[in-house]
Design a protein that fits this description.
Aminopeptidase; 383 residues; 28% strand; 2 domains; elongated; N-acetyltransferase domain-containing protein; 8 helices; 15 strands; alpha+beta
Length: 383
């Protein structure tokens, strides 16, 4: 049986609207399919800086049409759970690009054809929301966390400007404790005599490419020559094209200030608690994306094969766990608490797969993450 689909657009949803939708998604089906959308909704309600988007987060829900009493206006609150097919968030990034996420909601009775049609309608609606001052050739950067057939449909049917790597989701229902490390931990490398110290990521660890100054809030920080040399490393080691603004966002704004770590290597004989952090070389780091997934895990070449990646994941998983367990049970109930931690690993990245599996994370079958540039101007409009 085919169903007529319609689009409900909620511009700049209130905190209450976001949390209500997150709660409904959490209890409606397998969490891995919607955990990114849930994470972004919950994080946006707990952060003073809701997102990196100028137009904030907009919600889009594609749903099955249902008879309504005359004069009744459809809202998120009045939309039945069983009628929701696809949920997404989108906005305009400061670089004047449209960005967003789409999460298929795998409820019983959904067919691939129905969800594919929902994707088409969602993209057409997003295209209609594109600000008139933007270049019509501007791409829509879509983070498609969907069952594999949906990703394949998008790649096959939509006009792509580019198609990035495929990522697999890894999730865990408990924070790892293999190494017993946490914020403030330190240990001495038996071979080199270096002392490793677990610290926070600081703004001086991030490269500001265009100048020797960086802006944090309203305070302008002038970097020393040593700091400029050192802070180049985060962007130099990244595997995804993050810019300074995004790295600053996921390391220097709440709640990310509590959901990141930097392991620094101090020279032999230097005591980290009494030394300046500038004496320690950044060795490995990790943070948390806007959707509460593990982000930007990297290890410098000189410090590899010392289990630093696994230690980073262990350190950041605990505050992530605390954040989730603090907010999710009250919102969704104990029985619907989603995985404590999750992250996306590039397909074929053997080292990262071993790290995640070694930390107790398991691959979530059937869910893939794709980073796609869709040419908005070429998306067919819906009459």
């Amino acid at each position: 049986m085919s169903h007529l689909l319609q689009v409900l657009l909620v511009r700049q949803p209130t905190t209450d609207e976001s949390l209500r939708l997150a709660r409904r998604l959490a209890v409606s089906g397998p969490a891995p399919y919607v955990i990114q959308t849930i994470g972004q909704l919950v994080r946006s309600t707990k952060s003073p800086k809701r997102s990196l988007y100028e137009s904030m987060d907009h919600l889009i829900v594609v749903h099955r049409a249902a008879p309504r009493p005359d004069g009744e206006h459809l809202t998120l609150a009045s939309l039945a759970d069983a009628d929701m097919v696809l949920v997404g968030l989108f906005g305009t990034e400061r670089g004047a690009r449209h960005e967003g996420t789409l999460s298929a909601r795998p409820t019983a009775g959904r067919t691939d054809a129905e969800v594919n049609e929902a994707v088409r309608l969602a993209l057409a609606a997003i295209k209609a929301e594109m600000p008139s001052h933007l270049d019509p050739e501007t791409s829509f950067i879509m983070y498609a966390s969907c069952p594999t057939p949906i990703v394949n449909y998008i790649i096959k049917e939509m006009p792509l400007l580019w198609d990035d790597h495929l990522y697999e989701m890894y999730a865990s229902d408990k924070a790892p404790t293999q190494f017993g490390v946490h914020m403030g931990s330190s240990w001495v490398d038996e071979q080199t005599g270096e002392t490793f110290f677990v610290d926070r990521i600081r703004v001086s660890d991030i490269d500001y490419v265009s100048a020797s100054q960086c802006l944090l809030g309203q305070e302008r920080i002038v970097l020393t020559l040593r700091a400029r040399e050192r802070c180049n490393q985060m962007l130099a080691e990244k595997t995804v094209d993050y810019d300074f603004d995004y790295l600053e966002f996921i390391t220097q704004t709440y709640p990310f200030t509590e959901l990141n770590c930097m392991i620094r290597a101090f020279p032999k004989g230097v005591d980290p608690p009494t030394a300046s952090h500038e004496q320690g070389e950044p060795a490995a780091w990790v943070s948390t994306h806007h959707d509460l997934s593990i982000a930007a895990l990297a290890i410098r070449e000189a410090f590899r094969r010392r289990k630093l990646a696994a230690k980073c994941v262990e350190v950041v998983s605990h505050p992530q766990s605390e954040f989730m367990r603090t907010h999710f049970p009250a919102l969704f109930g104990e029985s619907t608490t989603p995985p404590v931690s999750f992250g996306m690993v590039k397909d074929g990245n053997v080292a990262s797969i071993r790290t995640m599996e070694g930390c107790g994370f398991s691959k979530v079958e059937g869910v893939r993450f794709h980073w796609i540039g869709i040419k908005l101007a070429s998306i067919p409009s819906v009459e």
